[in-house]
Design a protein that fits this description.
With 154 residues, this protein is α+β, with helices and mostly antiparallel strands. The chain has five helices and six strands; from the N terminus they run βααβαβββαβα. The longest helix has 10 residues.
Amino acid sequence: MAYWLLKTEPESFGIEHLAALPRRTASWDGVRNYQARNFLRDDVRRGDLAFLYHSSCAVPGIAGTVKVVRAAYADASAFDPRDPHHDPASDPAAPRWYTIDVQLQRRLPRLITLEELRAHERGKLRGLTLLQRGNRLSVMPLTSDHWRFILSLA
DNA sequence: GCCAACGTTGGC
DNA sequence: GCCAACGTTGGC
């Protein structure tokens, strides 16, 4: 099993939104970055676990964990001209973008803030992609050691 | 294939 | 709102 971190902006779609959905499950669509797409399409497996990270907000941090309940399939939002993530270059016969389904597994008892993660940047969380300079990836892998350590902070 | 210009991300 | 960092685009 692999571990991931998924970024989302809580003002548009955060853990509260996910928790309110039927079966607490959502399609993780709208990813429009090739490196993130490659992770989704090629490496994320059903059964993998991921942190749900809140970005672009007052206090960025990890809010909970989700389980991958469906592996990659074509991201239909790219085909919809009215969708903000519409991409006319994505052909339904050869989709450019992919999505996965995730189910909320656990809301952490408190937000593990970016500031707190940074406190371990040179220690237990050395090498964590999220903390690397200029990192903008919205889907990134993390090691099982990092996964367990971050959970131990909660 | 180079690289300047531009758009986006995301912490602060 | 600012701005550093990064990815993408497109002229050449």
